[in-house]
Amino acid sequence: MSKASNMPEMPGPPRWLAPAGWAGLVAFIAAQVTGFLISPPDRAMGNLQKIMYVHVPSAWVAMLGFFIVFVASLLYLWRRDLKHDRLAAATAEVSVLFTGLTLALGSIWGRPTWGIWWTWDPRLTSTAIMLLIYVGYLALRSFTEEEERRARWSATVGILGFLNVPIVYFSVKWWRTLHQVQTVDVTGAIGSSYAISLLINSVAFMIVFAWLVGMRTHVAGLERHREAWLEEQALTRSEAHV
Amino acid sequence: MSAELRRVGAIVWKDLTAERRTKANFNAVVFLAGLILLLFGFAIGPDGQTMELIAGGVLWLTVLFSGVLSFNRSYEQELENGALEMLLLYPGDRRSIFVGKLLANLLFVLLVEVVMVPLAAVLYDLPLWQHIGPLSLVLFLGTTGFVTLGTFYAAMASRLRAREVMLPLLLFPMLVPLLVGAVQATGGILNGDLMGSTASWLRLLVVFDVIFFVAALFAFEHVIED
Amino acid sequence: MALAGVARRFGRRWVLRGVDLVVQPGQVVVLTGRNGSGKTTLLRLVASLIRPSRGAIRVFGHDTVREGANVRPLVGILAHNAGIYDDLTAGENLIFSLRMAGQSARGAPISETLERVGLASFEFERVRGFSAGMRRRLGLARLLLRPPRLLLLDEPYASFDQDGIDLVNEFAVHTRSQGGTVLLSTHDLARAAGIPDWRAHIADGLISEVPLEDRFRRPAGGLA
Question: Which of A34, A73, B190, C115 is deepest in the core (most CB within 10 A)?
């Protein structure tokens, strides 16, 4: 059996990926430096408040990610182009990661502040629910082997899941305020130094997020490239097993 | 249009007839619901006051846990003999299949509730008959949203290997607003607070039901294909 | 019906690898091939139940992927799995199928159709106890109620006694006489003797027209 022809060269990563990686690293370091060293400790909560500098951007970026999953899912159902599905899947994975991070940070912040590991704070609770919804999305993908079906099904789950985001948030918020539980204004007093730290961290997180999604999508693209080549090989060979 | 109604009616008739003939399933779900109510009682009681406080929550969790069993089953009869493929081959809008199954499941769960809710009233000492009107409304609104999403996700979950796990995993996080709204509204009604917050919660349920009915209806076409 | 460059894979295995096939209306084509050679897949692709991984299929001028809704009313398939409901009776299964097609079941020839396929006495019996042969007769009855213009028969002789085989062949011939088209897949050509106009053979995911031995071919000027 002669050796099959060599796989055509893998596409390289998109040009913006490597610079983004470096930029993200630099921005992230800069952000932490600003946060820890330059901005002053909070009046009431001291240095602990600085967790907010990473907790809040982490949450925003995760939410942005879910929005991207939503749009990519819609695009896939409309265009049936698998590259949208790859983007959706990669973004979902990274967003789930950041959501987990958000929850962990929120919990860490909560412990010294209120003495408990978990509070049913509306934002945190909504975030936990979103985490579960998208973990479900990823679980569905891992159980569905057929590529086209996986893309179609997870797209619908991604769309419905995102539609629920505002509903979940508002219903949990009403649920809490109804019972007069202390709702914490986590953003605190926004002085200019806070705003700057928050801003730099947000930018840093967005760049890191974009880099992670870019990497993951690229890897998925490489996997697809290899699959496509194997497909072609199987197609032209007789007795079609690979 | 009347052809589509006929199709919807056909599915409802078929699902209910098949269900009626194997009554075993309905009985099992009802008994399970009763069991869950009892278990909650043991877990949370015996203090009568505590039980009264959490009665709304217990009621709705029981609906969810027992109702979820009926959704996968609705698709299993299609998968049994390759009937799903035949369903897809009939001319006409495939969304009728969704509406038909939704209605059949809705009827099923509502019937389970007809037995289960009075039982809950007995076990948890609830003023059921005084507020039967508003209570029926909450039950209907909450169940509709539950069945809409359940019927939708089961179309996928029933065809996966880990179907018993996947359906709750996909479905339950999505139901949180519905659970919160239904429990709050139920609690409000049972405590006699008909105005104010209860109305807001009912509005939430309506919004939830409408949004997800429309979304699931449009997404169903993509899900039911092979 | 025209298939152009149609290929279909399941996972990494290519079942069909570039099939070209054209069938004119008013013909009965027999499709032969080993078990697992892709006959069922081909029929399902034509019925628009599944999409091709590559290539395109047109049925009566409509693309099966983009215009599936136009294809479906014209196609009928008798598959290996009859696709019926165990908890309904034979009659109810037929009533259901009529209603699902958007028609009223009132006044429909349910009993007559069941009699034609030899299931008259089972009209009010639940399908659950039916044998494989009975189930396929019911599937046939369903097709008889709404005769399609393109009839797809997937291993129609399986589980059938000679009566059943004759029923299938009668139906195929009748469909042709009405200007319809029949695609019949089988691994046992002898049973279809005298019916088909020509034969296509699937091997290795590819299709080829194979000359039909005279003893199998439809006699010229013979059965309508």
Answer: A73
